[in-house]
Amino acid sequence: MNHQTPVFIITGGQGQCKTTFLHLVLGLIVGLNVRVRGVIAPGHVRDGRRSGFTLVDLATGEHEELCSIDPDPRCEAHGRFYFQPVGLAFGRRALAPPDPRGTDLMVIDEVGRFELQGVVWADQLDRLTAHPHPPMIWTVRRRLLDTVVERWNITNPVVVDVGTASAMATADAVMDAVWAWREAQPFSPITAAPVPGDRVAPPALFADAAAGAPRSTPVILRRCYGPEG
């Protein structure tokens, strides 16, 4: 199964909205009872330059600060960013190898130069790709794409370039992969799922907050992508 289950790689140049494209794709499948695990990392900008990232656990909707450019001796320094120990631990828990009976899709935003250097999410990626896994979506900067595919020996990559790709078509392809994964499992899939062959219907993107979330929290952080979100 590991050699047949696709890894969708959303790619583009720096600042080309890979995370935004991923958010749109997830928004298109969230109403289809897809059990999503993993992380999405919305970025922050200060004075026209990337200043840090927040990490969102897609299974729970919880979030933690991951890193910033502000020096902090308590943090791990990688490049110009200082990574919060709490944020790293939070992400590593979210990226633990999933139970295939409870996961249809695994998301990692993003796989980049730090992982290629063996830090941040590198160990989690090694574990995820070493065992049978559900379909996955990674975001990867275009110039690192070939290196990432080779490093993790991705035998069935589906490359989605944000410059030319359609979020609707990508969501449709992801759902096809999810259905193939479910049908290949020895246990029954979750109930109340769409009929195989149904096309993706776009819900209202950037919908209201999950119940109980602070209203001051950005919508992208309030959104929970699990089947109950």
TrEMBL record:
Output the InterPro entries linked to this UniProt entry: Nuc-triphosphatase_THEP1, P-loop_NTPase
Q: Which UniProt keywords apply?
A: Kinase, Transferase
Superkingdom of source? Archaea
GO MF entries: kinase activity
Tell me the protein's name.
Nucleotide kinase
Q: Does the keyword Nucleotidyltransferase apply?
A: no
Keyword Transferase among UniProt keywords: yes
Lineage here is: Archaea, Methanobacteriati, Methanobacteriota, Stenosarchaea group, Methanomicrobia
